[in-house]
Queue: 2 jobs
Job 1
Amino acid sequence: MTEDTLPPYLGPQRVLSGIQPSGALHLGNYLGALKKFVALQDQGPLLFVADLHAITVWQEPQQLAAQTREIAAAYIASGLDPMKASIFPQSAVPAHAELAWIFNCVARLGWLDRMTQFKEKSGAHKERASVGLYTYPVLQAADILIYKATHVPVGEDQKQHLELTRDVAQKFNHDFDAPGFFPLPEPLIAGPGARVMSLRDGRAKMSKSDPSDNSRLNLMDEADAIVQKIKKAKTDPEPLPETLAELKGRPEAENLVGIYAALADQSAEQVLAQFAGKGFGTFKPALAEVAVATLAPIGVRMRALMDDPVEIDRVLKQGAERANAIAEPILKEVKAKVGYWSARS
Ligand code: AQP
């Protein structure tokens, strides 16, 4: 299954995903998420800006609204049409948080204890992490299930959270005697851009929070910066091999080949067929060319969009209206199943 050929499914399909307004977007966010959203836009995806998730780590209140507009600009600059995709801030749809509370009472501590992202993000001092960071995957389950979404395009790092969403859906359906009420959503992860690694360390994920800006290509980087970062990217002295198997144990080389493949819409095998026997002195300029060709126009469009915050706000408001219209009746049904007095008809 690839992201643009959805599997046969008997119920109504609904595609949903989100990105946190927690810093500058990078190539990993583009290849792992944004590019997939564009491929799926004829499905009318619900795409939120995850501002509730963002505050699980400190965000400057004066900057959060601007960061939210920046993610909306990235959605549109990547090729999403707001007439097809509903783009909205998560906090503008209160049902996400309300369902998350109910799911906090469905999910089990043991499930959350297994989440590797919490362990990575909380670091050595987990007792100082916010409670929100710990229950983040429960909110993510609510984000998806409040729309009964069936397909969730995400990067590889979100796989475990999607499994937890399926567990929450299954337990809710069982506990409240509601078979099939929530669908078990499918992650759409396949493809060479599913796990883009740091340009400085082929074993670490490319990430917004990496202190080294040279570790990532930002969507807003100018062409010169993209070329320089690729030139400085860590590599090894060997030429590129003929087969994928020979790339094993060479994480930086494997990453750069994967990035080229994802940007050029080729398989890694096709990239190796073209560059086998060539060194990085030849490969890096070719990679820089495809990276600039994709990213530089997105950066230009983002800057232009961010000069028009009124238009971005219009898109976000319209998206929130559509999202609320879907979420509110589902939340009402959930409350009735739980037995709340407030849901009596
Ligand atoms: N390196 C990556 N490769 C492929 N996909 C990636 N994604 C993130 N990094 C990579 C995908 O981008 C989407 C949005 O991610 P997010 O902003 O909601 O959260 P994140 O995964 O925490 O992103 P970062 O950049 O790694 O942020 P920090 O540094 O704050 O942790 C998701 O679909 C994600 O899979």
Job 2
Amino acid sequence: MTANTPSELHKTVLKAVMHTPVVDMHTHLFAPPFGDMLLRGIDELLTYHYLIAEVMRVAPIDSGDFYAMPKRAQAGLIWRELFIERSPVSEACRGILTVLTRLGLDTASRNLDEFRGFFDALDVGDHVDLAFRTAGLKAAVMTNDPFDDVEREVWLRGFDPDDRFLPALRIDPLLNDWPRTCEKLAAWGYKVDTTLNHTTLAAVRKFLAEWLGRTKALYMAVSLPPNFAFPEESPRAEIMEDCVLPVARESGVPFAMMIGVKRGVNPALRLASDGVGLADVDSVVRLCGSFPKNKFMVTMLARENQHELAVATRKFSNLLLFGCWWFLNNPSLIDEITRMRFELLGLSFVPQHSDARILDQVIYKWDHSRRIIADVLADKYAGLLDADWAVNEHEIQRDAQRLLETNFRDFLSR
Ligand code: FIX
Ligand code: ZN
């Protein structure tokens, strides 16, 4: 069937984008064998660090006292301050309401205990099934940190893989805090020295190759500060060039860089303490140009970086641009950024990842983003209709599938 008018088009596109299964290429979710590391339910949703930052602006309590409270009490305070005392208009607040309504709960009741009862009754297996089904999620890529002692034990012990939770090796400590990471590696028996001599670099490569093998990670990833530069005389640049990139090349996995986060701008807020800064797109350009046999996946946090990054992406087929990360994951910015990306890159990017930390968040993050992606895509098809190019339903579905799954999968297997 061909969609011949803008309103038919919009309907068809919305249906395709809302129903095409997603492979979510970056989350902080964990498969059930990781136990308590898989966060879920209303109290976790309410104490999401986005909402902690918001509540600390208005609650009559300082962050030390807030964090000393039990989770349930923290959630109760956030519910009262951000949902009852004020209307919940922020994107993170609205997200919770979307989750509740999509799960069939009556938000009009404003009854937190009723919501708690619903989630408390779900066992983990049913809860994962429900969240994935409601969000239309085929799979979610985890963030697997080999330097986290609890997580490391799970990997060393082994578990039955669940193909809805895909591994990715996260190496922030290695690239952002070499002195401390060097001590850890030495304690685990690797022959390393802070001076980064040949033996040390070989040992770091061995560590990375072993963990890629153990986890079967789809890619390696790091988050980087706004002042990240390449090349540069620093342990980070040296380890990147002499360890991460060669190991990534040999194993054929991409290296994902999430650039522009200023960690700990207000340390008292803990996980909610991070800010954003303008980063250097030229460093990405130099990496993609100097290492054509490596594959890079990049997202940047500052709105002001988005145009330059999209233009850089046009120049390198070994660069996959992805997501509207964190402070960009707001409707007005997703609309603007996605529109520009279609105009500069056609369909050759990944418009969104959820960054979900709590299982149920996949429901709202994908619901909200899919609607905007659909609106923008429908506008683009309407532009084609003006030139007598009518897209048919099959073509629309194919395009939606590229955006939500196969651009990522194809890049991995290239
Ligand atoms: O570095 C990251 O992967 C970030 O996404 C997180 O550190 C951040 O806390 C987050 O959850 C953003 O959405
Ligand atoms: Zn993240």
